[in-house]
């Protein structure tokens, strides 16, 4: 049996058909490999659509990658054709298919796959007659397409399929990720005639409504291999022969079925595992991540070994017909290959396939993986259960609101064959609170943009984050001065706000709702009165409109009182006027004839958001305000189309409500827990207490009032809850880089890097470097200033002094005709533009102005210039001071004072030199 793709020209996950080619049964000594005809490699009709999908598949796969989870479930529909049900009988066909699907389940549970994929049969349909809309014939491609359309139409309704038997079915139809159709009709890929093909499927079609289908021919118990192989194609696996590292080996996705191998003995290749991982990372596989609750009514697969359901005689009957029996004289070799004798024949025959695992091969023995071994008890099906939760991870942020997570595994125990998987999530997240981030620090999203390797090496702080509305948890960054954002990564760090004005957070690349109770995924919301999960009855809404158009300048529209919440001010139409807001502490927006840019402002104890789009404006604030706010309109040219404002205030705000004695008498005052305080520590385990407030109940309405109203009632102790239990941690803290050591060209910068440990109160203390994880950040880096406008210019090397007895040519080379001499040149800093003397030349790169030169060794006898006695030289030459002050220091450093010519011109420096030398000798 050979397995080949119909179309090898495309590599997209969707739309490509594969088929399995079958070799007819032969004697065991015959070869089972043959050349594949050319007509088996034609392109299917969906080529045009494949090309369109292929052009974007790489981009989509990279953008929409998702992390692999612990387990994937393929909720599978299995349909048996009427000819198969008639051949086996209804009861036998059901037993046969369930046994085959159990073998398929075990193949996908093989550890070589590396990923837990559970094949769950959610519905088994045994057709008594072939439906009119289902056309199954010798043309495999058309038959597969017909079945895909039929299952999509029929499976959508919650009903029984006519007069067909549906074992284990319910009125509430379970979901379908993949659909398998088993028939005894001999089909070919794209020819309307029988051939050796036994299976065909769409590559990467799982989860797709009209491509999640497999067509398999009932060829005995090898049907399990056919279905497993085709489901592999349906989940994006190509043939091993398409991957050079895996070609020529015997695996489930091999291009040829190897005779003599038990399906349970086959494994998945590393190439198949890679193909599956790539497919599961794409969005087309998302249905495998969701298990419908209705699938709990799935058809239960037998947990026993398949050979325990079918004796050797029954297996022979499946292979060779009802008149076949097992050859008793071949019992000693039965686990290597199943030999059968058909009534009327004189010799036994085989298809080279070993019997099923669990087939008895002797007393208390059975066949396992082609060998006869002693029986071991098969455990009953075991439902999976969770392990203990791991410790909470560290907070994803060091300031502000972040996210922590913990994990558990479904291995206590793991689910056995036929057992149920663990229910619930394997990962749990929770919100963690830190100290507020310092003012002026870039947002968490901006920090991620600035940390991206592509830009941080040379251009720091040149990227700003951009939130794309339909992709809030992907990191888009915009270079400074450019409008088009660039996708940096398909997932922001956990704990990143979904938007600049939202409390929802991104977790694992998805925007998660954060309830007002601080729980991820919680539906708890503050009502309009600011009460978490409240009913909105403790406050009232104040609305108003302002349509004044007379005058020019600032005109007050309304005064919003202290304690107001849900403030909203909006212009009815775009106008040339401006909204303005001001409190008594002189904090304001657009006041004093200064128009602000849109953004957030801290006014009256709350954050006010100011939006301006063209000429249209809007002001909003969550509240509560601590002092009154004055809403104003700045008019120009008497143009104002009107503004609408609204806010909420407590129902007991007005003096009228507070002074009605009859209501005071009917009121009930009690202490209630109205919220939670902040955590007492930032890490290491602390406590948070409830806020105990005095509450008045009147007419079933609760209102928080002053504590003095509850003096007659005993105040309860606050409730206590543990918080911030994650351990305190050490981290590296870096200081600011020092200014560049050079104002122009290259220099160096320094900064301070220390290891700090976080105390429970949130402060940090210095500690030893070994307590900080990771490599210590760099303390020194190179830097570049602006281009230097001044450069060093040096003249040619020339003579220093003129002596009558020295030739000109010698003077140009060295100052001495023998021994050591000196050459000099003029070095000066010159401005590049003006050509005048400059002042910004780099000191370290200044060229040398002097250099030593060497001539032939002087003849001591005739060198009258050599000073043999410093005392004698001092007596014979009267020193009146150095004549060449600029050069005398160099003369002394080069040890040239012994030459009388140099001594005469630098007598003061040389005399001090000899004096020091004599003191050292004494």
From TrEMBL:
Ca(2+) 1 binds at residues 75, 177, 287. Keywords: Calcium, Cleavage on pair of basic residues, Disulfide bond, Extracellular matrix, Glycoprotein, Hydrolase, Metal-binding, Metalloprotease, Protease, Repeat, Secreted, Signal, Zinc, Zymogen. The active site is at 230. Ca(2+) 2 binds at residue 75. Its cofactor is Zn(2+). Zn(2+) binds at residues 229, 233, 239. GO terms for cellular component: extracellular matrix. Pfam families: ADAMTS_C, ADAMTS_CR_2, ADAMTS_CR_3, ADAMTS_spacer1, Reprolysin, TSP1_ADAMTS, TSP_1. Binds 1 zinc ion per subunit. Residues 1-35 are annotated as: Disordered. Residues 875-914 form the PLAC domain. This is ADAM metallopeptidase with thrombospondin type 1 motif 17. It comes from Chrysolophus pictus.
């Amino acid at each position: 049996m050979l397995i080949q793709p119909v179309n090898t020209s495309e590599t997209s996950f969707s739309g490509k058909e594969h088929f399995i080619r079958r070799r007819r049964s032969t004697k065991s000594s015959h070869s089972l490999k043959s050349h594949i005809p050319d007509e088996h490699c034609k392109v299917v009709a969906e080529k045009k659509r494949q090309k369109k999908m292929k052009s974007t598949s790489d981009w989509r796969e990279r953008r929409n990658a998702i992390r692999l989870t612990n387990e994937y479930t393929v909720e599978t529909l299995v349909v048996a054709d009427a000819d198969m049900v008639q051949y086996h009988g209804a009861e036998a066909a059901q037993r046969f298919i369930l046994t085959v699907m159990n073998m398929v389940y075990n193949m996908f549970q093989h550890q070589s796959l590396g990923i837990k994929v559970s094949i769950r049969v959610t519905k088994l349909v045994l057709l008594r007659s072939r439906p009119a809309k289902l056309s199954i014939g010798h043309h495999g491609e058309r038959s597969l397409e017909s079945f895909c359309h039929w299952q999509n139409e029929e499976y959508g309704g919650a009903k029984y399929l006519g007069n067909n038997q549906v074992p284990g079915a319910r009125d509430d139809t379970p979901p379908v990720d993949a659909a398998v159709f088993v028939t005894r009709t001999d089909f070919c890929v794209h020819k309307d005639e029988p051939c050796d093909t036994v299976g065909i499927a769409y590559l990467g079609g799982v989860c797709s409504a009209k491509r999640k289908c497999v067509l398999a021919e009932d060829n005995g118990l090898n049907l399990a291999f056919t279905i497993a192989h085709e489901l592999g194609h349906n989940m994006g696996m190509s043939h091993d022969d398409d991957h050079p590292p895996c070609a020529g080996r015997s695996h489930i996705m091999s291009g040829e079925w190897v005779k003599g191998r038990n399906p349970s003995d086959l494994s998945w290749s590393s190439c198949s595992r890679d193909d599956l991982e790539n497919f599961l990372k794409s969005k087309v596989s998302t249905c495998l991540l969701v298990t419908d609750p209705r699938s709990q009514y799935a058809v239960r697969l037998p947990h026993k070994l398949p050979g325990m359901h079918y004796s050797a005689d029954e297996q022979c009957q499946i292979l060779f017909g009802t008149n076949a029996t097992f050859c008793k004289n071949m019992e000693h070799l039965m686990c290597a290959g199943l030999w059968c004798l058909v009534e009327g024949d004189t010799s036994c025959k085989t298809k080279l396939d070993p019997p099923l695992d669990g087939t008895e091969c002797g007393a208390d023995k059975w066949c396992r993986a082609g060998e006869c071994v002693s029986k071991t008890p098969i455990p009953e099906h075991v439902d999976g259960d969770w392990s203990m939760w791991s410790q909470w991870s560290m907070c994803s942020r060091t300031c502000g609101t972040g996210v922590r997570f913990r994990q558990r595994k479904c291995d206590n125990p793991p689910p056995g064959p036929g057992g149920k998987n663990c229910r619930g999530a394997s990962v749990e997240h929770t919100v963690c609170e830190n100290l507020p981030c310092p003012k002026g620090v870039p947002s968490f999203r901006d920090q991620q943009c600035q940390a991206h390797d592509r830009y941080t090496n040379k251009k720091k702080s040149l990227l700003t984050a951009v939130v794309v509305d339909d992709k809030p948890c992907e990191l888009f960054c915009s270079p400074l001065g450019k409008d088009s954002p660039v996708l940096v990564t398909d997932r922001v760090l956990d704990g990143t706000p979904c938007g600049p004005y939202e409390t929802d957070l991104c977790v694992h690349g998805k925007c998660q709702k954060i309830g007002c109770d601080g729980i991820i995924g919680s539906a708890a919301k503050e009502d309009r009165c600011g009460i978490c999960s409240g009913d909105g009855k403790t406050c009232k809404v104040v609305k108003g409109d302002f349509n004044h158009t007379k005058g020019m300048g600032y005109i007050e529209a309304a005064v919003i009182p202290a304690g107001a919440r849900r403030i909203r001010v909006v212009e009815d139409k775009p106008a040339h006027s401006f909204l303005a807001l001001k409190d008594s502490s002189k904090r304001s927006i657009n006041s004093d004839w200064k128009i602000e840019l849109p953004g957030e402002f801290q006014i009256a104890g709350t954050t006010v958001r100011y939006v301006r789009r063209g000429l249209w404006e809007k002001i909003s604030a969550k509240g509560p305000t601590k002092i009154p706010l004055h809403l104003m309109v700045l008019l120009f040219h008497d143009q104002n189309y009107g503004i609408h404002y609204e806010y909420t205030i407590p129902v007991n705000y007005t003096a009228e409500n507070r002074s009605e004695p009859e209501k005071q008498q009917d009121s009930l005052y009690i202490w209630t827990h109205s919220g939670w305080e902040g955590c007492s520590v930032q890490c290491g385990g602390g406590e948070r207490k409830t806020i105990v407030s005095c509450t008045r109940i009147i007419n079933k309405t609760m209102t928080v009032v002053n504590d003095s109203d509850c003096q007659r009632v005993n105040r309860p102790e606050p409730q206590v809850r543990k918080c911030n239990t994650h351990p305190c941690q050490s981290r590296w803290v870096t200081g600011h880089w020092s200014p560049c050591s050079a104002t122009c060209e290259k220099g160096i910068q320094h900064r301070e890097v220390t290891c700090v440990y976080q105390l429970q109160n949130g402060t940090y203390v210095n500690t030893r470097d070994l307590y900080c994880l990771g490599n210590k950040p760099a303390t020194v880096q190179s830097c570049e200033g602006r281009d230097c406008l001044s450069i060093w210019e040096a003249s040619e090397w020339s003579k220093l002094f003129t002596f009558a007895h020295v030739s000109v040519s010698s003077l140009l080379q060295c100052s001495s005709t023998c021994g050591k001499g000196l050459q000099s040149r003029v070095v000066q800093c010159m401005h590049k533009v003006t050509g005048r003397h400059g002042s910004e030349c780099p000191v370290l790169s200044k060229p040398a102005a002097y250099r030593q030169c060497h001539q032939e060794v002087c003849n001591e006898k005739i060198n009258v210039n050599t000073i043999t006695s410093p005392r004698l030289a001092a007596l014979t030459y009267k020193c009146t001071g150095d004549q060449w002050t600029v050069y005398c220091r160099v003369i002394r450093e080069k040890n040239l004072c012994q030459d009388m010519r140099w001594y005469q011109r630098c007598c003061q420096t040389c005399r001090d030199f000899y004096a020091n030398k004599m003191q050292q000798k004494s």
